[in-house]
């Protein structure tokens, strides 16, 4: 029977495919006393063999999608599965205690997990506890004859349905098979949503009921434009949405003709329209969409997709690859922004009640200066290969910027002493904390550029967690309070002759773009698939008219009032 529900439209497009539930199954079992020891031991052998086959396949997929280095974590899983001591311990537990295989596996692996977690002086050994947890789940799934979903194993076109997706989950998706994403939790600016846009996968998030209302294998329509979800559609509905999907593909083909054109307004004013990326793997989309720069390189993904802190050389190669591919166009790199909802399995940050207001981004870099210096050295070495801009995230005070710049200058001097060739580098900050936005006139005297990170700026200004669907209504990018902060930053930058960009998702929002053109924003950076659509829109806008529109919006009272103003002025 057809069901309809709605979530938050997170990534444009229409997807129609069978549902694939990425939900952990019930792996509970009852401890039982057994009589046939040999039979239970044989079940263990079979489960270990099947689990190894799974991991080999996952490893191969990970190598194809992420690269050999990122796939190394699965080597550790294979080592655990093939460890003769662990296998012997399972069988010994069955023989000694006359318990079923499930109970033996659980008791033995719990012992190993406790032992590794107790090694507080050895981070590497502590990390092995997580490997054993993953392996245990897989062994139990085979013993219980329960399917364990994994996006790396998907080999047919599906709509991925999950409670939520972590950034690393989304980074592993294969666009050939994952045609759409549907989640219970999340908001438009959650990192999984941003990654979905980067991968050009239609997505609807924050549905609340997706995993409850959708069954594995049933046909689902995901409308990434409106947030509509249709489960088990009838033929007429299916045909209607297939037409909508085809129309969007035709529109994208029309936008593609703008790939090699400049981004200019109807009256000839030039802008820069760039793309946001997470790693060198995102560069094909950047080039295919005619981006005029990389406005945000989220370097934290180098850390998140690794099983160790990336070395200076590893980082240098990643930065150099992007800078060279842009062939002289600007590449703006954000230094490590770990913390908040971005965690590393191998580096335990302190538990905090409010991590988004806590120890993250530049606060970590200024505290853990060895890690910060390693990144800066890698960036400075890479600057010799093109046009590099470096920005520091989560800057709240002038003192933080000055401290970060001091370390940057020290490392530059150290490399000069070593005879290392470097290019000219522009230095700036992310504007994402209202305190910095209000002091933009002071910051503008000391740096080369601003980049406004609207995702966090809106969240901090409205005191609303951007990933919490319960307060999603407070994500109001057109609220006059947000617009006034943005306008203040742009005015402050231009008074000092400085460049101002925007790298939050608002930069590619069709409602926001006319306002930002009117305010005089210099660079718009967004998910690569939005570049050509934004360029097309800009060609229809007259800057004088948009300036008048922006003035009206700044004087408005509500988010909805601003939307109405833009729609009336651009229809």
Quaternary structure type: single chain
**Proportion of strand residues:** 5-15%
Biggest β-sheet description: 8 strands, mixed
Q: Looking at the structure, what is the overall shape?
A: globular
List key phrases describing it.
globular, alpha/beta, Enzyme I, Chain A, domain 2, TIM Barrel, 47% helix, Glucose Oxidase, domain 1, 571 residues
Short description:
The protein has helices at 37-66, 73-81, 84-97, 101-117, 123-143, 167-171, 191-198, 210-213, 235-256, 283-288, 300-304, 312-325, 362-367, 369-382, 398-417, 434-438, 440-443, 454-462, 480-495, 512-519, 531-538, 543-554, 559-570; strands spanning 3-6, 8-11, 14-21, 158-162, 178-183, 203-205, 219-223, 228-231, 263-264, 270-277, 294-298, 330-334, 387-392, 425-431, 449-452, 499-502, 523-527.
Describe this structure in words.
The protein has 571 residues and is an alpha/beta fold. The chain has 3 domains: 3-23 and 151-253, Glucose Oxidase, domain 1; 37-143, Orthogonal Bundle (Enzyme I, Chain A, domain 2); 257-570, Alpha-Beta Barrel (TIM Barrel). 47% of the residues lie in helices and 15% in strands. An 8-stranded mixed beta sheet has the order 1-8-7-3-4-5-6-2. It has an 8-stranded parallel β-barrel with strand order 10-11-12-13-14-15-16-17, surrounded by 6 helices. The longest helix has 30 residues, at 37-66.
